[in-house]
């Protein structure tokens, strides 16, 4: 829909008419990406922040919320949406499925906010209660949205997230994964969600997530953002490891270099709203592996644009981004 803005044959990317102006940078040359760097997404976020459902619907016109996880995430991450979206669910019969999708996504995210990132043993009984109550509401709404619009893939990604949190079991979650991949076999966010699910801290065995990511990458066309799943799998390997240098090997460096060249650095890669998130995933993975040459290429394209994920896996994410950006 947005065209391939990344030119072929070494050409510079075409100017994006909807790109937000780069805000004033910090002293280290970085800035936090806002609203996927897109003025239309900013209009959507501002409408949602104001609780204006009619303005939200108008701002959604350029996007396919049933397939665009990143645009949906901008609404799901926005505090306060839960205060007004329920009225839209009940009163707007024509757009009920869209309202359910937004509300269900927000409730799943809101549930995780109540749980916090603490280890399970450090989560209080009251936090668990709120967490499960919000996820229950989110699941009901997402399942209804998915039933109403069977072509949508985005509800299934959020149902995988809630299924992981409520420990529904392998059979339920694998069914949800299959439902998602039937709708889009190359969906990046679905694959990344499953990489998380396969981590030993959740439901998987060591090496299982990486094998899944490698199989997915092998099926990815040149220039497809699915290559990011391999970078994220290596980051997860680093998270799970007891040592910080577990992915600093020539083999991992070569694998990440190939994945970057095949996906985000390939001329066929399409720069859509939020493309900087894909580049940040590779920037972190390459930095952790010590593959400096390709990391410099990725950071050059980012030109200081920082996204909190996946850098929040560090204790001081912005400092880590800035340090590797300088390197």
Topology (SSEs and partners):
Blueprint (H helix, E strand, L loop, with lengths): L30 E2 L6 H11 L3 H7 L9 H8 L4 H11 L4 H20 L9 H24 L5 H12 L4 H14 L4 H10 L10 H11 L9 H13 L9 H13 L12 H15 L2 H11 L2 E2 L1 H4 L5 H10 L1
Parallel strand pairs: 1-2
Helix pairs in contact: 1-2, 3-5, 4-5, 5-6, 5-7, 6-7, 7-8, 7-9, 9-10, 9-11, 10-11, 11-12, 11-13, 12-13, 13-14
Plain-language structure description:
The protein is mostly helical and 327 residues long. It contains 16 helices and 2 strands. Strands 1-2 form a two-stranded parallel ribbon. The N terminus is likely disordered.
What's a quick, concise take on this entry?
With 327 residues, the protein is mainly alpha-helical. Helices cover 59% and strands 1% of the residues.
Give the mean pLDDT. Answer: 93
What's the shape? globular
The total count of helices amounts to: 16
In total, how many beta strands?
Answer: 2
Termini separation comes to 35 Å
Biggest β-sheet strands, sense, barrel: 2 strands, parallel
Strand content: under 5%
Cα-based radius of gyration, to the nearest Å: 19 Å
Strand order of the largest sheet: 1-2
**What would you call the structural class?**
mainly alpha
Q: Which residues sit in consecutive blocks of at least 5 with pLDDT less than 50?
A: 1-10
Portion of residues within helices = 55-70%
Order of secondary-structure elements: EHHHHHHHHHHHHHHEHH
């Amino acid at each position: 829909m947005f065209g391939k803005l990344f030119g072929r044959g070494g050409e510079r990317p075409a100017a994006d008419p909807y790109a937000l102006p780069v805000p004033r940078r910090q002293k280290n040359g970085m800035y936090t990406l806002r609203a996927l760097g897109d003025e239309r997404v900013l209009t959507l976020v501002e409408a949602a922040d104001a609780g204006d459902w009619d303005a939200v619907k108008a701002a959604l016109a350029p996007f396919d919320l049933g397939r665009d996880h990143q645009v949906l995430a901008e609404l799901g991450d926005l505090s306060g949406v839960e205060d007004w979206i329920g009225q839209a669910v009940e009163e707007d019969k024509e757009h009920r499925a869209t309202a359910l999708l937004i509300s269900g996504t927000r409730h799943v995210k809101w549930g995780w906010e109540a749980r916090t990132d603490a280890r399970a043993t450090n989560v209080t009984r009251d936090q668990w209660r709120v967490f499960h109550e919000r996820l229950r509401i989110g699941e009901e709404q997402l399942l209804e949205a998915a039933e109403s619009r069977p072509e949508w893939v985005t509800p299934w990604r959020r149902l995988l997230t809630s299924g992981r949190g409520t420990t529904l079991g392998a059979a339920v979650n694998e069914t949800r994964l299959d439902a998602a991949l039937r709708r889009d076999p190359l969906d990046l966010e679905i694959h990344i969600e499953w990489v998380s699910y396969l981590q030993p801290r959740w439901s998987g065995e060591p090496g299982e997530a990486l094998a899944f990511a490698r199989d997915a990458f092998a099926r990815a066309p040149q220039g497809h953002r699915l290559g990011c799943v391999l970078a994220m799998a290596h980051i997860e390997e680093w998270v799970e490891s007891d040592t910080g240098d577990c992915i600093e090997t020539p083999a991992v460096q070569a694998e990440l270099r190939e994945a970057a060249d095949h996906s985000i650095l390939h001329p066929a890669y399409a720069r859509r709203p939020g493309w900087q998130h894909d580049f940040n995933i590779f920037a972190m993975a390459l930095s952790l592996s010590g593959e400096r040459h390709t990391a410099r290429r990725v950071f050059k394209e980012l030109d200081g644009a920082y996204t909190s994920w996946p850098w929040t896996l560090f204790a001081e994410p912005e400092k880590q981004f800035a340090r590797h950006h300088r390197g």
